[in-house]
Amino acid sequence: MMAENGKDEAAASDGESADGSASLTVERRDSNLLRRMEICVAEAEKRSGKNAISMQETFTVYLIETRPADAAAEGRVQPPESVWRRYSEFELLRAYLILTYPFYVVPPLPEKRAEFVWHKLSADNMDPDFVERRRIGLENFLLHVASHPGLSNDKILSHFLTEENCWKEAVYETGFQDKADSRMRAFGATFRVRSPQKCFIDMKQYSEELQCHTSQLLRARARVADRVYAVYKVHGNYGRVFSEWSGVEKVMGDGLQSAGHHMDSYAASIEEILEEEEHYADQLKEYLCYAEALRAVCRKHELTQFELETASQDLISKKQQRDELATGMVRTFSFKGVTNKLFGQEAPEQREARLSMLDELIADAEDSVRAKAAECEEHVQKAWADILRFKEEKDKDLREALLNYAAIQINMCKKGIQVWSNTRESFQKM
């Protein structure tokens, strides 16, 4: 399972070459949170209370337990620190990480409402089986974040894991809400980048294809699960017929009764099989959400590149205005050029004042371009290094999930063969 592999992910440090990847590798080896702390979401509990508008509501809270990793390594028994968190608090933590680290592919949370479910699976978010799968998903989220070379050392994450009451205040003190509003406006705007980097264009396209193929696979799996469920349950009819038939047969009765038991057992086994299968479907759903996180990183690159191009164009425009003012030659049509022709040139004092003002504006614009260029370069280096890390992790996780899913199908077929082999032996004993 992915949750069980969190520490293995922390140990994996080799990645494809990219600027800044060496420093990420060193950071992962030396300061990974998962190397210093054991983290688990131990249990879930249903509670009732009043919400923000003083209405009674029922909700689920999750117990996060942490303990120093060296305690277990040294054989010391140390009671864990524990905090209770609601799902909405996990959402707040992830939103903070996305805004603070826009160049990282932030791990997704498990789904809030069950999707891509076969018809007998409950979509109620208070259903015990759904809550248990969400508990596993939340633990996976924390393990992924805690093993991330950049996210794992964030102080807010540490507050979230260890402090019961004051961690939200620490989030809001970072200016989180202002950043959130700014991000929403920027991402909602329509803009076109003149010189985007091809690798990010390709990665954005890949994220869309990954999301498309993963969702198609999940839909197909849900349809297959429905049909398999129906086939298994139909075998219950064999059990009923054989059991009723055995009551009127003296010689064949025992064999028919035994065959009926085998069929009933076979029909009843499908719920457990599909529930186990659902855990691997949840791993596929995780990467359905990862595709959106990957696309957000690419979108942020487009935004930083657009801001750099806008700042550069503004600098060019100001320099052109100064050249025109200094030489008296107007290269493009402007209202100022028309007024100069109609009413004559400005006085020398006015002209010098405007030149001085433009020099200041040009200096500010040059500073802005340098800052935007540095921001863009930093985002490219850090984002691409993290995308390569994500791809390596994704290949391993999806391979594991698909292999486990195939193993379940093989075991299901073997069980069917075994049931019919036992049924045949029952018939032979008649």
From TrEMBL:
Record's keyword terms, sorted: Protein transport, Transport
SUPFAM superfamilies, per database record:
PX domain (SSF64268)
Keyword Ion transport part of the UniProt annotation: no
- Gene Ontology biological-process entries: positive regulation of autophagosome assembly; protein transport
Composition skew (Low complexity), residue ranges: 12-23
Residue numbers spanned by region Disordered: 1-25
What are the PX domain coordinates in residue numbering? Answer: 40-167
Q: What family does this chain come from, according to its entry?
A: Belongs to the sorting nexin family.
This chain belongs to the protein called PX domain-containing protein
Q: What is the lineage of its organism?
A: Eukaryota, Metazoa, Chordata, Craniata, Vertebrata
Q: Which gene encodes it?
A: LOC101164612
